[in-house]
Amino acid sequence: MYVKARRTLWERIGPIWRIAFEEAWAAYASGTVPVGAVVADTNGAIVSRGRNRIFDDAVEGQIGGSRLAHAEVNALLGLAGSSLDPRALALYTTTEPCPLCIGAVVMANVREIRYAAREPYAGSITVLDATSYMRSKEIRVVPPDDADAEAVSIAMGNEFHLRGNGPRVAELVAGSLAIRPDAVALAQRLHAAGRWAVLRRMSAREGIAELLGQIDLLAQGV
Fold first, then answer.
1. Buried b or exposed e, range 76-104, using 16+ CB within 10 angstroms
2. Which terminus of the chain, N or C, has fewer Cβ atoms within 10 Å?
3. pLDDT of residue 135
4. Sign of CA dihedral 2, 36, 118, 155
5. pLDDT tens sequence across 60-104
């Protein structure tokens, strides 16, 4: 039953998360940090969307080529000029927000954060409890509730870091290994096989199905 559920992840996660993961996959395919984000209202209507563009060009309404060009920031920039009450909006992001993005949510006055995957190294949900000002915002947090969605996000993120081979890659991988060794094992397999060159040509739906299929194979020792 669990394997069957994995194969229907795309349908199960719903339209908001599908858009968020499409954005994350677009970032992954372009060679930047694979994180996507969406801002939606209480009725589930998508207000804005964005993806990480740290190592990618800017587009209209989003920043790029900057260390500030995070997915959550770009999604929140889409609220500029909106007449909607930000306190009635929620930010959906494929990875636990970092300190920059937590600050952006607070200052944008959005009152709900939903994230699909934990991020042991830079994830900073606890910052919401750091000061009286942060606590006064009373931001509701909805942590990951789908193991497969989390695995996909962590696998993409770790494969990206392994491919980049930056100075903190060992710490980044070690943090993920402590919570999702299956996703890290997949990232290592993808990296060793140079699989990104093939994956980046797939759609988000196809790519996510491929990643979950590979996790199944790893679990079977294949």
1. bbbbeeeeeebeebbbbbbbbbbeebbbb
2. N
3. 98
4. positive
5. 999 999 999 999 999 999 999 899 999 999 999 999 999 999 999
When pLDDT is averaged across residues 173-198 and rounded to a whole number, the result is 97
Do 20 and 36 touch, CB atoms closer than 8 A? yes
Q: List the Cα angle 119/121/122 in 5-degree steps.
A: 75
Pairing between β-strand 89-93 and β-strand 46-51 as defined by DSSP bridges: unpaired
Residue 33 near residue 160, CB atoms below 8 Å: yes
- Cα separation, 194 vs 163, whole angstroms: 9
* Predicted pLDDT of residue 3: 43
Overall residue count recorded for the chain in this entry = 222
Tell me phi and psi for residue 46, to 5 degrees. Answer: -80, 125
φ/ψ (deg, to 5) at 158: -70, -35
